[in-house]
Amino acid sequence: MSFFGFGQSVEVEILLSDAESRKRAEHKTEDGKKEKYFLFYDGETVSGKVSLVLKNPNKRLEHQGIKIEFIGQIELYYDRGNHHEFVSLVKDLARPGEITQSQAFDFEFTHVEKPYESYTGQNVKLRYFLRATISRRLNDVVKEMDIVVHTLSTYPELNSSIKMEVGIEDCLHIEFEYNKSKYHLKDVIVGKIYFLLVRIKIKHMEIDIIKRETTGTGPNVYHENDTIAKYEIMDGAPVRGESIPIRLFLAGYELTPTMRDINKKFSVRYYLNLVLIDEEERRYFKQQEVVLWRKGDIVRKSMSHQAAIASQRFEGTASLGEMSKHS
Questions:
Q1: I need a surface site. Which of 14, 148, 204, 239 has the fewest CB within 10 A?
Q2: How far apart are CA 234 and CA 150, in angstroms?
Q3: What processes does the entry annotate via GO biological process terms (predicted)?
């Protein structure tokens, strides 16, 4: 029952104009569950209608205006309530007045810039959503609808292999090589490991894919490392001159593109971590950053020209260094 006008006497629904044909994509929610949302790309138009259905057809609904917004925002979990909006578009649908019957209002946001990929992480969330608002004197009626944005990239022009010699003086000397430094999300990491000197008893070797999420700036920087994959390369003791091949398929893991300094709020980087464990349970490791990017399928006709040319190019560098040791 609507008491003194406080109860919601209208149902609001946001309907996309191409809902039947538009592709959906799975996206992780804040509580770790996976949900499917309508998928958009940079430069695509977002259009549809806002439907208002009066719960009591005999009762009119007074309002101070009806609007719809398209919003892109970043929320840092340690600073909840303080949302950083990087896209904010508004369309007024109706002037102040009253609604006497159920009706629908069309809207269109043309060639919307969506510069970043949707992301839900350990300490940060980047989301895009539509928000319809019926402004009322005491209590606004608000309906939100999330969408997912994927950022497509062009194939990197420079994609050199990673070749490194690492080791511990007079104990271990290995050379490892990965075929590329930049991989798309469905790619295969191909590589080899050569043992040039082995004077410690290695019993196990693996490659880990580590995602490092960095949020905040200055003294308030938070690093969150998450091991996405553990791939066993070898079980047993290698000998000098031995060579071990690597084939690591990325498609089976939950990965996002590399994100660098997104709106000066957060970054997401990926590392291949080569781990060796000896018979005394000492761990030796060497980390190397790789760049991940989302490869576009055949560009759909419905995508705008802006969406077709939207891309990110990455420049990755390989660094040489000594292998770290953890006792």
A1: 239
A2: 36
A3: intracellular protein transport
Compute the C-alpha angle 125/49/105, nearest 5°.
125
- Residues 69 and 307: their CA atoms lie apart, in Å, by 21
Q: How many CB atoms lie within 10 A of CB 155?
A: 12
Q: Write the DSSP symbol of residue 295.
A: B
**Residue 307 parent element (H or E):** helix 305-309
Q: Compute the C-alpha angle 29/32/36, nearest 5°.
A: 45
This model's pTM is above 0.85: no
- Count how many residues are written for the chain: 327
Alpha carbon of 139 to those of 8, 12, 31, 236: distances in Å? Answer: 9, 14, 29, 68
Q: Which residues pair with 184 in a beta bridge?
A: 293
The answer to whether the beta carbons of residues 148 and 25 sit under 8 Å apart is yes
Phi, psi of 185 (to 5 degrees): -70, -15
Cα separation of 36 and 46, whole Å?
A: 18
Residues with Cβ within 8 Å of 132's Cβ and at least 6 positions away in sequence, in order, are 12, 14, 50, 66, 67, 68, 93, 142, 143, 144
Buried b (16+ CB within 10 A) or exposed e, 263-280: eebbbbbbebbbbbbbee
Please report which helix (H) or strand (E) contains residue 140, including its range: none
Which DSSP helix (H) or strand (E) runs through 210?
strand 202-215
- Residues 192 and 262: their CA atoms lie apart, in Å, by 34
HSE-CB at 125 with a 13 A cutoff on CA atoms is: 20
